[in-house]
UniProtKB/TrEMBL annotation:
GO MF annotation terms: L-ascorbic acid binding; metal ion binding; oxidoreductase activity
ATP-binding is among the record's keywords: no
Keyword Lipoprotein: no
Domain named Fe2OG dioxygenase: residues: 191-300
Record-given protein name: Fe2OG dioxygenase domain-containing protein
Keywords: Iron, Metal-binding, Oxidoreductase, Vitamin C
Pfam families reported for this sequence: 2OG-FeII_Oxy, DIOX_N
Family membership noted in the UniProt record: Belongs to the iron/ascorbate-dependent oxidoreductase family.
Length: 352
């Protein structure tokens, strides 16, 4: 039993509002808004982290900003992440080319087996709720690259080369971000190495087709859910659609040119001892243009302990979660079929 199953829940029920709280802007500068922690805000509500500054004299400030973003927003826009604009455009163009292949060619990759190393997921109708989930998604394992690349498509002909380059580059940025987040939490180096030593990466190319205007009210790209990851890193195209739950309301996340969207997953909620909360998010569709995104999901190995490490527990902050492994969490998640981080409740100390 392992995370060879589909990692991201995409057939979930709509969820009630949560309790994430944002920090209102304190600067009204026409070019840059900031919140009271000094976080740059894109479009007034999305915190921005400059990953490039992590490697200079501002490192400690960036680590604090990462902590604030994870603690108060659950997500952030990541700029200067080290992935070239050429590669960003390349992977997005490749995804568009793939989803514009004839339907019969794409559906050769369809599999109802959730343990498949690569699988095409398609939209479906939920008759019980009378809603339609309109998304086509190609999902596949991508780290270590040499273990999985030969299972990837060869149509388009550049698929393996471009996707491989992007997966390597996105994983590099992803691990850099996660290590900095762990450092900000106060984790020891040994703990960080244990968590990331045998980590995995899962990637999906996502396509949201144009929706007939008469069906918009009953159609989602993805319904509200959290991800069973450490973090999820998303490359959206220029078309809005992602919405995150902030202040008990779903707020649109407007794409920032050449930036990635990084958000907290269930595993990070457990590791942080609930200092960070897994981000509830969804995707809406529109009646005017298709939308694409590329998602990278970072998860630990099955034997990794994702209960809070000892250095994050003290008299003032007792353990909320018991010591449990990712395999135990993953198995429980699939039995419960819950769409959000309440699947961690089984591992709370009070649940013993």
């Amino acid at each position: 039993m392992s995370p060879s199953k589909m990692l991201v829940a995409d057939d979930h029920l709509a969820l009630p509002a949560g309790s994430n709280k944002t920090i209102p802007p304190t600067s009204t500068n026409a070019k840059v808004q900031t919140d009271r922690y000094g976080l740059e805000l894109w479009e007034g509500s999305s915190p921005v982290i400059d990953l490039g500054a992590l490697h200079g004299p501002s490192r400690s400030d960036i680590i604090k900003q990462l902590d604030h973003a994870c603690r108060h927003y659950g997500f952030f826009m990541l700029k200067n992440h080290g992935i070239s604009e050429t590669l960003l455009n390349g992977i997005m163009g490749l995804a568009r080319e793939f989803f514009h292949l004839p339907e019969g060619e794409r559906k050769k990759l369809y599999s109802p087996d959730p343990t498949s190393l690569i699988s095409l997921a398609v939209g479906f109708k939920d008759d019980k709720q009378d809603v339609f989930v309109s998304r086509e998604s190609l999902k596949f394992h991508s780290h270590p690259l040499e273990k999985f690349v030969n299972a990837w498509p060869t149509n388009p002909s550049s698929f393996r080369e471009i996707v491989g380059d992007y997966c390597v580059a996105s994983k590099r940025a992803e691990i850099t971000v996660i290590e900095a987040i762990f450092e900000g939490l106060g984790m020891e180096r040994e703990t960080i190495d244990q968590i990331l030593g045998k980590h995995g990466q899962y990637t999906s190319l996502n396509y949201y087709p144009v929706c007939d205007e008469s069906n918009l009210e009953r159609t989602f790209g993805l319904r509200g859910h959290t991800d069973s990851t450490i973090v999820t890193m998303l490359l959206p195209d220029e078309v809005p659609g992602l919405e995150v739950l902030l202040n008990d309301e779903y707020v649109p996340v407007k794409p920032m040119p050449n930036a990635l969207v990084v958000h907290v997953g269930d595993v990070l909620q457990g590791l942080s001892n609930l200092q960070y909360k897994s981000l509830l998010h969804r995707v809406i569709v529109n009646s005017e243009t298709e939308r694409l995104s590329i998602a990278s999901y970072c998860y630990p190995s099955n034997d990794t302990h994702i209960g809070p490490p000892k250095e994050l527990i003290n008299d003032d902050r007792p353990a909320i979660y018991k010591d449990f492994t990712y395999e135990e969490f993953y198995s429980t998640m699939w039995k419960q079929r819950r769409p959000d981080a309440t699947r961690l409740d089984s591992f709370k100390v009070s649940a013993a």
